[in-house]
Predict the structure.
Amino acid sequence: MDTMPFTELGLPAPLLEAIEELGYERPSAIQAMAIPVALAGHDLVGLSQTGSGKTAAFVLPALSKIDINRRKPQVLILCPTRELAIQVCEDVHRLGSKLPKLHAVPVYGGAPIGRQFRALEDGAHLIVGTPGRLLDHMRRGSFNPSEIKVTILDEADRMLDMGFREEMEEMLAQLPESRQTMFFSATMNRGVEGLIKRFGKNVQMLQIERKALTVESVEQRHYEVRERSKVEVLCRLLDLEDPRLAIVFCNTKKAVDECTEALLARGYPADRLHGDVTQQMRERVLQRFREGKVEVLVATDVAARGIDIEEIDIVFNYDVPQDPEDYVHRIGRTGRAGRSGRAITFVFGRDLYRLQNIERTIRQKITRHRVPSQEEVEDRRADSLYDSVRDRLEAGSFQGHETHIERLLDQGHTATDIAGALFTLLREATSTKGQSIAEDTTPGAGSKFDRSDSQPHRPDRSAERSSSYAGEMAKLFINLGKTHGINAKDLVGMLYREGSVPDGTLGHIKLFPRHTIVEVPEECVEKTLRALAKAKLRGKPFRINRDKQP
Ligand code: AMP
């Protein structure tokens, strides 16, 4: 998939600088489509999912249109939930970090309105908020929309699902006629169409074309790994799987640099490829990779394009790719020419959503495996030392040390002791120092691979809990279960993404035929119940409350 670089989209320099600093190497498909259209001032509809990079697709052009010297609201972004509003506002700050005087304010229900009054009075350029609270401010006069140039409806379908139609309509009707409107939605339905018809002008429809993509000859798994444990888990898997050649894909140049440095520091023959690597250097790296002098190549998607090397045993997705199509391109580099390839993806928290998206696209399951323990890695290292020593003995190529051996025997050491000492020395010389990680304390972690486990949280076995959270847990009841087609993955995605459950703290999930019990930290129960009051699972509304059983 060839997209133009960020520098050719027509974005102003301070935004390009921020993008560079964030390490984004190239626009995602929706960004490449939407940014030029939005910069040209057209209304548009972007049909895209979370994880596609849609936020930057509207935030970047919106920021380009702000006159920083006018301290009046010029951009309005509507979001369905408080969490999303906060997240979008964080993205605005990150992408606008080189616009020093930029003032963006999140406005949502459930927070003290007084503080929001002050923030708005301070002269916000951009406001992100939920429809109810925004309308409240508009009615009270604390938000004056007369200079709004750009309005964005983020997750328009969800805002309608959540019953915000009237608030949205009332608000949109009061915005200046001349404004530009961008609609973003995961799905297209009557309701969204109605909004577009009423509030859009010559709207351009942008949709990422999805080809049917399959990758059958590759064994695909995922591991739940926190960001800070990724290097350690990568090293453990490299030791256990022992690939001759492996590629590690990261989403940003920064991640490529950090991962490569960490691997080199631990003694792995690794090198990197990304957009800042010169052509000459690139050739050299690829040559060394082909010859096996570099065994682990860490790369971004763009940099890896065009690499034509047959014997890649494993592709690691150190970060879940932006786009399902990238996933297919990445893992298509292994399992070529009749070889059995392996693809390993690191996933955590919100990434599960993107993983599901990928599974839907490739129509295949990417099974979950448990992070191997340090002991397993040690056992494997000991086994391979044994293999090498035995091979040497069988090949007869160990002569030339007779005098030293004689001397040790003369000093009274037995042959077994000498061999033991040599094994120990060899192990010390070849082993890299492992680290304990949060994943090690997870009950069930460290057992041998469970290749049949396809659920991120095995729902039917209460012995397992993937959370490393040590605080008090509470049980929540949901009135949907297996017979409603609900699975644990949907629930995990929803609870982390919409239900404000902090990453990594989810406890057991038990699916019953007609209901489900999930464990969440006690401290977030109220927030989660509020956040999910109007949510849907597989398109179905549901009831969620504290479990009444003791
Ligand atoms: P979104 O779909 O907007 O929720 O974005 C998903 C994630 O992708 C966010 O964490 C962004 O920081 C990240 N992201 C957005 N655009 C890019 C890009 N062009 N390259 C790499 N990461 C990106």
In short: The domain at 6-207 is CATH 3.40.50.300 (Rossmann fold).
